[in-house]
Design goal:
This protein has 14 helices and nine strands. By secondary structure, it is of the alpha/beta class. The longest helix has 27 residues.
Length: 355
């Protein structure tokens, strides 16, 4: 439509030039300027009403929330899900961002893009505790790193530190020590003790393993069921995933869960979180950030995904409440945790933890 209008104007301009009618030329030029401005305004308006998202969070977890956001705001959301490679993609695109938002399943990836200057400074969020946000990212949900225990042992209380004790030799199963979930836990231990202490701890933990690190969190619970080990580390929400899976719920016949360190600092938590990538669409992106950290979205996270909301004002789902009760969480600032990650990786490599 705009193309045809411009074409007609230029044909008219050509005829006028031939007739040297200056007054008409001025009128036509004025129309061109007005149409150009109108086109720019409409194009910009259309662009500003759309958000592009890179998401590590699985579609079944995030899609209901994004649909609710679209319904509430009329803002269209286009999103790409990928389990791997998004951090590298974001860093490569940082000077010309393709996406406006990054939804991460782990604190380490949010920190990676912040350190690469690939995320945009955000406004502080009143619904999110200070230790779960920074200038460049914010937590949206919390997941506890718990210990799955053989029910027959009757264990009620345990600390992460205990797993390095001699009495646990040959009794522990774990996924790769290099997985972000474990790196996050190890980094928190280093924050509470020291780099030297952590190296000694990881050497002892490795010596206590029943097998080489392998599989995912649920595979470790399966190993308890199979009698391979008595203890494993895993995120709390896998308990519900196994409960709801006909092929896996039998594994919980032999395993129960313990929230570690309840007699001192509390259980370690990691987060899923959000970062803004595109300064040019920041105002719109902040609408989504505020929505996802607000009461409505936090309640959806709690009830649909069985995660711990970051907002202390949002109640737990009935299922999580029955499992966790008044569990105490480690209040360590996640930025401090982040600063230890490189040292943790160096130790894991030094001692060949997965070998």
């Amino acid at each position: 439509c705009f193309f045809l209008m411009f074409s007609n104007l230029f044909f008219e301009l050509k005829n006028v030039l031939m007739e040297t009618q200056m007054k008409k030329i001025k009128n036509i030029l004025f129309k061109v300027i007005v149409l150009s401005s109108l086109y720019t305004l409409i194009y910009t308006s259309l662009q500003s009403e759309e958000l592009k998202i890179y998401s590590e969070r699985q579609p079944l977890l995030i899609e209901p929330l994004l649909k609710e956001f679209e319904k509430d705001t009329g803002i269209k959301v286009e999103w790409i899900y990928s389990k791997k490679g998004l951090v590298q993609k974001i860093i490569l695109e940082k000077n010309r961002p393709v996406a406006d938002i990054f939804l991460s399943s782990d604190i380490s990836r949010l920190i990676d893009i912040a350190e690469a200057d690939a995320s945009v400074k955000m406004q502080p969020l009143s619904m999110v505790p200070e230790n779960l946000q920074s200038d460049y990212w914010a937590g949206l949900t919390q997941r506890a790193r718990i210990i799955y225990v053989n029910k027959e042992l009757g264990v009620k209380n345990i600390n992460y530190e205990d797993l390095a004790s001699e009495e646990y030799k040959g009794k522990i199963c774990i996924r790769s020590g290099f997985h972000p979930y474990n790196i996050s836990l190890f980094a928190s231990l280093m924050a509470h003790y020291s780099e030297e202490w952590l190296e000694s701890y990881l050497i002892s933990l490795k010596a206590n393993l029943a097998r080489k690190p392998q599989g995912n969190d649920r595979d470790q619970v399966k190993a308890i069921y199979a009698g391979v080990c008595d203890y494993s580390l895993g995120n709390h929400y896998y308990f519900f995933k196994m409960q709801d899976n006909d092929d896996q719920k039998m594994w919980l016949d032999k395993a129960t869960i313990v929230f570690p360190n309840q007699d001192n600092r509390g259980t370690h938590v990691n987060i899923s979180g959000i970062a803004i990538l595109n300064e040019n669409n920041k105002d719109l992106a902040e609408k989504l950030v505020n929505f996802l950290s607000g009461t409505k979205a936090q309640s959806i996270y709690a009830n649909d995904n069985n995660e711990f909301p970051v907002s202390p004002d949002v109640p737990l789902s009935d299922r999580v409440q029955s499992l966790a009760g008044n569990v105490k969480f480690d209040s360590l600032d996640l930025e401090e945790l982040a600063s230890n990650r490189r040292a943790v990786l160096n130790i894991l490599n030094k001692i060949n933890f997965d070998e």
